[in-house]
Amino acid sequence: IFLPEPAGVKILKGKEVIRVDSQRREVTVSTGEVFAFDKLLIASGASPVIPQVKGADLPFVFTIRELSDIHGIQKWVKPGKKVVIAGGGLVSMRIGEALYQLGMNVTFVIRSKRVLSQILDFPASTIVEKVLMKKGIEIIKDDEIIQITKGEIHLESGKRRKCALVVFGKGVSPNVGFLTNSGIEIQRGIVVDEHQQTNIEEIYAAGDVVETLDIVYEDQRINALWPVAREQGHIAAMNMASIPIIYDGSVAWNVLKVFGLPILTIGMGREEKPEVMREQSKEFYRKLVLDNGVLKGLIFIGDLKSGGLYLFLIKRKLDISSFIHPMLKNTFQYSNFAHRLFEGLPTAIQSQKP
C-alpha cells in the first residue's frame, strides 16, 4: 500500500501461508497454490493474545496490532464515556494515553501487581502509577476481566465497571501455527542460530517470530522490537545471499513517554541483582544494574540523555565502574568520556564507537 513493488520482487496479496513442507521444499497458501523454494525466510511476526473471555467477540471489544484495529476503535470513541483497558504494558499505556487525550475516562485492569511490570521495578512503577492517578485514571491491579456484557465488564474479584469500549493489550504470541509438522524447531518462537538459520538448512527466520541470543541475560529470548527485527532481517538476507555474517544478539530496550513522563529502560533494569545503584528525587528516578562493574541494565525516568551510549556500553560489556556517579547524576556523555572509554581497548572495538 505504502511502498512501490521493488524490481524483481513479486508480492502475492491475499495468500496466507498455511503449511511449509521442509522436505519437499514447498510452501502451500490459503488458495491451495503450492510454491517451491530453494531458500526460505520466515518473517510471520506475532499476533495479539486473544483473550478467552465470554463476550470478547462483542463489537466494542478490540485488540491492537493492525491499522484496521485503530479504525475500529475510533468508531467507539465517545468523550466522557469510559474505556477499560486490559493490561498494563507498553501498548496498553500508549492506547490509554491516546484515548485519554480524546476525552475518554480510562480504567486499566492489570493482572500483575504493578503497571509496566515487564520493564520497570516497583519504585519506577509506583512513579508511573502516581502520574496516572493524578490525571484521574483508575488502576485496578491483581485482577482480570472474566466476562464482558453489553456496556459492562465483570472482574474476577467481583467488581464491575460500566464502559463504552474495551481494549485488550495482553501481549503477543509468535505466528508459528502454520509450521506444524514442518520439522522446524520451535520453543516459544522459532529457534535460529547466529546466522538466523533454523535447524533446517536454507530456511531462515527473523523478527518477532524468532528467539535469539539476549546479550544481557545470555539465553534465548524474543525481543520484539522494530530495530531488532530490522537487524535480524538484514543478517538473514546476507546469509541467504551466501555472504556469511553473524548476529551477535539483541538487548531489550524502550524509550517512551507515558502520559508525558519520559522513560528509558535497557536490559536487566527491573532486576535487583547482581548489584544495584539508585538515585531518586521527586523529579527523576535512575537505577543501574551491574555485574562486577559491567552495566547489565538501567531504568531512567525524567530527563533522558545519551540513551544510545548506554545501549552501546551494555552491548559491548564494558566496565563502567568509574562512570557510575555521572551516570546516576545524568551528566554522562560520550563527548566527555570518549578518551577514557576507549583507552587501552583493542583496535577492533575502538573502531565501533557509537
UniProtKB/TrEMBL annotation:
One Gene Ontology MF term: oxidoreductase activity
User: What Pfam families does this protein map onto?
Assistant: Pyr_redox_2, Rubredoxin_C
Q: Which Gene3D superfamilies match?
A: 3.30.390.30, FAD/NAD(P)-binding domain
Q: Which InterPro entries match?
A: FAD-bd_OxRdtase, FAD/NAD-bd_sf, FAD/NAD-binding_dom, FAD/NAD-linked_Rdtase_dimer_sf, Rubredoxin_C
Q: Does the keyword Amino-acid biosynthesis apply?
A: no
Q: Which UniProt keywords apply?
A: FAD, Flavoprotein
Q: Where is the FAD/NAD(P)-binding domain?
A: 7-233
Domain NADH-rubredoxin oxidoreductase C-terminal, which positions?
Answer: 254-317
Q: Which cofactor does it need?
A: FAD
- Protein name from the UniProt record: FAD/NAD(P)-binding domain-containing protein
Q: Which organism is it from?
A: marine sediment metagenome
